[in-house]
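Milestone 3.1: sequence recovery, worked example.
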């Protein structure tokens, strides 16, 4: 559909010619849901065996962002945002993600425009840790910013004979050490066994679901992500966990060239022109797949939150 929103929406977003999705979560959940196991196996709707356990990921929900001191924070627009959270459990960065240490939201769509070229994801978000404890006696000992390991957003796409993942994540902390840099989805030249943490026969193939598959290394590198050039950035994270500042996020890809084009966080723009996207053999039954996804991961044994006020997906 053509863009037909009020002027204040355009001042907050930078949509391409055709808007596919505008989800303001004060108006409802808009089809965003948690990733869940595939209940398809005999004898009683079991799931395929996998090294990654999905049944401990928390549900996606609408939230007024309520905290014990200020009460209800609300959203950038209205009362509610989409809240993606973790359970209060984490492992080391270089280990297989612990069940419950990540939260995911996904919206399930398909392509409709045969002449599609560029595709863009925009959102306003905020992130924080649960304000439930103080560690140590140093300045800001209760802030717990380093409890948040990473968060990001991307697309899971299958069209024109390939499946491919594209997206950006913010690597905030590695085993408690603040890192604060952007990385983009790009699979290393590894085997399916290495992609699945040294497991043979896992259902997932190299390049699929990089937010939780792909070997991780103690220096912050990852077989599913590469560092964005000059990608270090200090995002606005206020000095109390209940003071959440809304942050702008946008990334643009070319679905004809299968390349990244551009990324923006707050007021900083990164040129990604010509960076290739990893292509994967297509899966059965999902031709035309266009699934946007958002995720968050913790770096300590405490709950962390990613709040999303609104999402706009557009194409030309």
């Amino acid at each position: 559909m053509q863009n037909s929103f009020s002027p204040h929406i355009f001042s907050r977003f930078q949509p391409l010619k055709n808007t596919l999705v505008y989800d303001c979560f004060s108006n409802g959940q808009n089809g965003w849901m948690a990733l869940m196991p595939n209940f398809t196996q005999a004898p009683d709707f079991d799931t395929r065996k996998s090294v990654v356990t999905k049944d401990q990921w928390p549900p996606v929900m609408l939230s007024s962002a309520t905290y014990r001191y200020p009460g209800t924070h609300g959203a950038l627009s209205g009362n509610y945002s989409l809240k993606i959270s973790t359970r209060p459990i984490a492992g080391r960065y270089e280990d297989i993600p612990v069940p419950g240490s990540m939260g995911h939201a996904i919206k399930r769509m398909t392509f409709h425009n045969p002449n599609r070229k560029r595709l863009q994801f925009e959102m306003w978000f905020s992130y924080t840790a649960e304000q439930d404890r103080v560690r140590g006696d140093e300045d800001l000992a209760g802030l717990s910013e380093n409890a948040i390991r990473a968060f990001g957003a991307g697309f899971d796409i299958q069209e024109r004979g390939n499946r491919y993942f594209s997206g950006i994540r913010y690597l905030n902390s590695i085993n408690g050490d603040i890192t604060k840099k952007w990385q983009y989805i790009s699979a290393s030249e590894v085997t399916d066994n290495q992609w699945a943490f040294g497991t043979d026969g896992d259902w997932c193939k190299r390049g699929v679901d990089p937010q939780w598959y792909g070997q991780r290394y103690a220096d912050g590198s990852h077989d599913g992500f590469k560092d964005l050039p000059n990608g270090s950035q200090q995002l606005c994270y206020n000095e109390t966990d209940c003071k959440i500042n809304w942050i702008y996020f946008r990334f643009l890809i070319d679905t004809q060239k299968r390349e990244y084009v551009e990324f923006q966080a707050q007021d900083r723009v990164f040129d990604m022109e010509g960076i290739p996207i990893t292509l994967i053999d297509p899966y059965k039954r999902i031709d035309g797949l266009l699934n946007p996804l958002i995720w968050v991961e913790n770096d300590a044994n405490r709950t962390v939150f990613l709040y999303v006020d609104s999402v706009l997906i557009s194409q030309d």
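The CA atoms of residues 65 and 71 lie 8 Å apart. The chain has a mean pLDDT of 92.
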